[in-house]
Amino acid sequence: MKLFDCPCCGATVHFTNSLCTACGAEIGYAPGADAMVAPGPDGTVTANGQTWRKCTHYAQLMGCNWMVSDGQPFCLSCRLSRTIPDLSVPHNLTLWKRLEEEKRRVVYTALRLGLPVAPQGEAPGGLAFDFLADSPAYFTETGRVLTGHSAGLITINIAEADPVAREEMRAQMAEPYRTILGHMRHETGHYYWDRLVRDTGWLDPFRELFGDERADYGQSLQSHYARGAPADWPQHHVSAYAASHPWEDWAESWSHYLHMVDTLETAWAFGLRLEPRLAGHDALAAGPGFDPCGPVDFDALVAQWLPVTVALNALNASMGHEPAYPFTLGPAVQDKLRFVHDVIHGHS
What we know:
By secondary structure, the protein is an alpha+beta fold. It folds into three domains: 1-76, no CATH class; 80-193, no CATH class; 197-347, no CATH class. Helices cover 38% and strands 11% of the residues. It contains nine helices and eleven strands. It has a four-stranded mixed beta sheet with strand order 8-9-11-10. The longest helix has 24 residues, at 246-269. The chain starts with a strand and ends with a helix.
């Protein structure tokens, strides 16, 4: 995630800001310009050759800070939400705000990578989100509202936005990592597989690397939940769940790649540089100086990424927290991440 400048005073502002904390100016993110802009008294501003105005959800209800330039009432991210939670139910507004904030991050990264992002009904093969709740409230992996993807529609159980419920589920499923952002990135992986791999020249190379996706999906998941992942899964997959089926292997790898580029962009924006004080640890040295969302060489990306993960885990341990990065990227896993990288930049 980039850092931005306040268009009024030049102070540093962040992706989620709707006000500049230095000068108090009202600001908003203009996705087409990839910049923060400040609407004037009439609520509009010109940037990147376009006239922008505030999303209807701007700073209201769910706190959107995005701008609109195409005459629509809602911004691009908000228009992706086909179904929102019942806001008459206590606490649903809080959960919805968390979901929308993480979705904006997903959309931001997709746009930075040059991926197609369009709401269903506005373009062929568009994307939509349903944020649903079990009734009565019931959160399990096999509940009535299943987080998943089907034909461009991503469904998220809003209980994923409840940190207590999500942590209970993470422990129950013995997962080292479970976040709203991770779920959304994973499900967009399924969406972009349909858009970028299926029926393209990437399909045969995909099958060679990930396996044949024509294997019975329901049976594969049933077997995974009944027996667990193979003992050697870390040698071949980024997560245990990735071992369940080639589609899930792709979606987990896709999600992980987005974790990498977004975190590296944040480190790059803050000028993070790692220079370990101990002799003989040159492999940990890494610096900024490149755009991780650009067409950078994959090996250069990994060379930047691995030192950052070591530092992240060391910092978390110093605060008494679990590892921020509980993953191991062996050669086979890196090959899959490289494939994701090539598909994304081949499209771009």
